[in-house]
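Per reviewer request, we include the raw input and output of the structure prediction for the construct analysed in the revised manuscript.
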Amino acid sequence: MTSLLMDWPYLGLAGAAALLLWLFVEERPSRGTPRGRDPAFVLGLFGPMYLLHQFEEHGVDLLGRHYAFLGALCHTLGYPSAATCPADPGFIAAVNPGAVWIAAALVMVFRRRRPLIAACVWGIALVNAGTHIGAALVHRAYNPGLVTAVVLFVPLCVWMLRTTLAAGVITRRQVPRVIVSGALVHGVLLVSLLARVHGLPYAALLAINLANGLTPWAVAAL
């Protein structure tokens, strides 16, 4: 079980490769449209993009450290030791191969039929990029996940918004929902950790963060 909790990012790398292959070989209804302007293709890049980001966070970061994000998160929350931190490998698993992978599945299911749901999932990456970049500016130091946040999240989020708006599958009035969706996902994560400190049962912490993967669907459905 410990190995599964710590080594899932390597499975994520295989998943990223498989998803990219699928996106490039799948039969597209709009074959006359270049992939770079096909909203369904661009929206589908969320999964591979985020899986690569998760590997830098929880696999091996750019300083060669394994599973480094948990320590960085605990330090940010004010806990010098992971032993006293409300976040642990089980929580990380509920958030990442739990909620984020659920959200990525929403993208693949709805990117053609309900593209706003898929776009709201991208809000997770948009807000996450802000947290990584903000932390780097405040502490003037690298944090696990920073490079993929800058190199992947920022340009691909811009590409996604430009493509979906140009194709008319989402409107400018719906763009705030994308941002709100990402902010809510991160807000639930942080509030649940605070609640854990004040007595929230561990099982409830994991259940809340698993269900949090459906938040983009709820925001888009409102």
